[in-house]
Amino acid sequence: MMPRRSVLDILSWVGAALSVGFPALVYFGRDRLSPQALAIVLVLIIWLRKRIAFGMRPSPWLVAGGLLLALLALGRNDVLPLKLYPVLVNEALLAIFAASLWYPPPVAERIARLGYPDLPIEIVAYTRKVTQAWCVFFGANALTALWTAVWGSDDVWFYYNGIIAYLLAGLMFTGEWLLRRRLLRSLGW
Fold it and tell me: Is 181 left (phi over 0), alpha (psi -120 to 50) or beta?
C-alpha cells in the first residue's frame, strides 16, 4: 500500500496538471461537455490543489473565487465563468507576490534561496526587483486573460491562456534564472 504522503503528493500533481490544462479542457471540451460538467472539473481541481508551488497553501480567496466561478457556470450553464479561471489564478499570484513585498522575504528571494541559502545582499535586493517584475507580469496577464475571456473569440482565449501565457511565463522565469546565475558568478558565487 502506498504511504498517505505519496498519495497526497500524486493528487496535488494531478490537480496541478488539470489546473495548467484547464484552458485546453474548456476549449476542446466546450462542444462535447456541458459547462456544468466542466464546472465539476474545476471543483475537482480546487479540491486536488492542496498545495501550490513551494509548499504554499492556496489562499482561501482563490478557493472561494474558484468555487464561485464553478457555481456560476453550474447555475447559468455558461462557459464564461470557466474562462475567467485564468484571470483568478493570475490575480491570486499577483496577490501572493505583492504581499511578499510587504511581508518579506519576497517570493523570488524564497525561490533563489532554494539553491543558494546564503544569498549575497546584492542578490537579495535584486530578488525584490524580480518580485516586482512578476507582479507587473501577473497584473498584465490577468488583464489580458480578462480581455480574451470577455471580448475575444474562443480561439483567442485558448491560444493566449492555454499556450502564450505559459510561454511568456516560461521565458520570463528562464531569463530571470539565467540573469541571476550571471549576477551570482559576477559576485564570485
Answer: alpha
